[in-house]
Amino acid sequence: MEVKTRAIVLQTIKYGDAQLIVDFFTEKLGRLSFMVKIPKSSKSKMKRQLFQPLMLLNLEFDHRPKASLQRIRDVAISSPFVDIPFSPFKLAMSMFLAELLGRATRNEQANMPLFSFIEESVLWLDRAREGFANFHIVFMVRLTFFLGFSPNLESGVTGDYFDLEEGRFVSFVPTHTHYLNKEDSLRMVSLFRLSYETMHLYTMSRMDRNRCIEVILQYYKIHVPGFPELKSFSVLKELFA
After folding, report:
1. Helix and strand element counts for the chain (H, E)
2. Residue 85's pLDDT band (cuts 50, 70, 90)
């Protein structure tokens, strides 16, 4: 079946000297993996730089449902980046979020609202000129709403502790260890309500920001089966001193 779809690059693995295995989240079919041959000719459309983290592409391919790896027939940039490739901060964020998405959407089928959210978020980051230091935190929180384990924000009105297993605030210390103390819980109430447009109003030190990311990653580990340690987090920790 011939398919034309927009797609977001999540992960690229080198395979031999001239091939790549690329994981995509596609608009029409959800998660798919492709074997991509990179010709040596400079005139070829199939270039390595097309398959960088979170690149927004148009794909054309013959979909084979039983094949573990698809083959691209044609590829083109859907929305070209203007700043992400040239900003060390945005590059580090894109690598981190691509790894996060690769793990959190592993079995995701076609999901138009999720695809639109990712695409719109990536374009917002690319075009932002300032005030984006908390972008990845807001993205991680908002992503939970599309993956089905979003926190219950209303419970924060009366609760003192955030129960990571239940995804809600409670007024008592849970019997398990997966909860936040009062200080971290209070910070979470504010973070859960941030948007890309308002996040620049919430100032944090690098230490506070990294602590927030650690907490949110812990939340993902509880709610996404097999969610691992993210290798790119170590790079992200050094940003925005």
Report:
1. 6, 8
2. very high
* Residue whose entry in the numeric block shows the structure tokens 């793990």: 103
Give the sign of the dihedral formed by CA 115, CA 51, CA 133, CA 107: positive
Full-model pTM: 0.93
pLDDT above 90 covers a percentage of the chain that reads 72
From residue 131, alpha-carbon distances to 94, 200, 202, 231 in Å are: 16, 5, 10, 25
**Residue whose entry in the numeric block shows the structure tokens 């200080």:** 183
Question: Are the C-beta atoms of residues 150 and 138 closer than 8 Å to each other?
Answer: no
Query: What is the gyration radius of the CA atoms in the chain, in angstroms?
Result: 19
- Catalogue the E-assigned strands of the chain: 2-15, 19-26, 30-37, 56-62, 70-77, 161-163, 168-170, 179-180
Sheet holding 179-180, edge to edge: 168-170, 161-163, 179-180
Question: Residue 209 carries which DSSP code?
Answer: H
β-bridge mates for residue 229, sequence order:
none
* CA atoms 194, 196, 197, 200: torsion sign: positive
